[in-house]
Amino acid sequence: MVVGGGEVAARKVALLQKAGAKVTVVSPELGVSLATGVKAGEITHIPAQFQPEHMGDYALVIAATDDAGVNEAVAAAAKAKNIPVNVVDTPHLCTFIVPSIVDRSPVVVAVSTGGDSPVLARLIRAKIETLVPASYGRLAAMMAKFRDKVKARFDSVNARRKFWEKVLQGPIAEKVFAGQDQAAEADMEAELAQGSAATDSKMGEVYLVGGGPGDPDLLTFRALRLMQQADVVVHDRLVSPEVLDLVRRDAERIYAGKERNNHAIPQEEINHLLVRLAKEGHRVCRLKGGDPFIFGRGGEEIELLMQEGVPFQVVPGITAASGCASYAGIPLTHRDYSQSVSFVTGHLKDGTVNLNWEGLVQPRQTIVIYMGLVAIEPLCRELINHGVSPEMPIALVQQGTTQHQRVYEGTLATMPGVVKNQDIKAPTLIIVGEVVRLRSKLNWFQPTD
Ligand code: SAH
Questions:
Q1: Does ligand 1 lie within 6 Å of residue 431's CB atom?
Q2: Fewer CB within 10 Å, N- or C-terminus of the chain?
Q3: What confidence tens digit (pLDDT) does each residue in 72-83 have?
Q4: Does the CB atom of residue 369 touch ligand 1 within 6 A?
Q5: What is the dihedral of CA 140, 141, 143, 144, to 10 degrees?
Q6: Answer CATH for 2-98 from 3.40.50.720, 3.20.20.140, 3.40.640.10, 3.40.50.2000
Q7: Is 428 in the pocket of ligand 1 (CB under 6 A)?
């Protein structure tokens, strides 16, 4: 039974229902969400002020009214019948407390301060939320399916524990996290069929991780978790030092380079390096700037992994276009100015830029150019030659989303000159389109450097 009809009561009711409880609400009036639940027949409603005779044989009672007198009466009536009672925000009237929970059912983590500071409990909970992947629930559910089989397969408790530890910390769990549940189940069956010998298999795995454009806060939870789990990290120049700082301290770091015309390790060799490291049994994090599948050659790297039977997963990252545009106050699309956006590479081949100019110069389209700094002059010239106004606004974002971010604005006519007169540092992203004008109104990010 929950006494009270407002928002606090509604939140308690929702949690109780999620745990499978049948709930009766006592309150003369109901807020919208509770009223909806009553209408749908999911909640029983007693439309009255609480009276001691309402105290039936409930399993739990929660008082969530803003009337201290009513709350006290509820607590007294419950205690008289030995029913556990919780009065929201009033620890001394409670016979039990409701912890803050991280719900990965069937896995549940509860955080309690014994009622001293629910806000602190919530903050701690938020931290744990970021540490425990959402897929732990699915992982636990899958392990439940295999419990009996594992028991039958290994007769000592020790052998079983070892087996589970291996499964939960290895590629099988990783597959569940990556949404490859069927593959994970097949692996479990194979492990069980082959026994412990197979669980000692030396094959490692590769995580192809998008590290985002620079600001470490823009990493995904999954990226961070895998960065902390890998024993070897192969990174390139675009990965910011702040992001690199977040890989496991004792992980081996291999710099794979990639400066323009100065590839520290040729792509072919990187592909083979990843295969070799994984085959040696390492958990390898291939950490790339931005998103691995946007001008990141991620496709080539996993193609070889696929061929060689190396388990891998791909973690998307925030690509430079999204990061730089947001942090420069330039929406890439806008109802009034731009209905589409194209991501293109300005990389020069034999000194010229080969792009589908007709397709690019459509009206109301934003163009984002990666790797375009060196070719800025031919880029601007070709756009004008293909009919774009020389007055079209263009922005160049240097080291976007980092504390060194700088944005240079101009027009197609002026930008080559702007670039010539500045000491521009890589990486830079170019944005062309009417949307660039919005920056004068929408710029919010203030880098400290
Ligand atoms: N996979 C990456 C892009 C790699 S290509 C991604 O999704 O972002 C390299 C180009 O990305 C650079 O030449 C530059 O144009 C752009 N770039 C990447 N990070 C950037 C940043 N922080 N600021 C500006 N441009 C960036």
A1: no
A2: C
A3: 999 999 999 999
A4: no
A5: 120
A6: 3.40.50.720
A7: yes
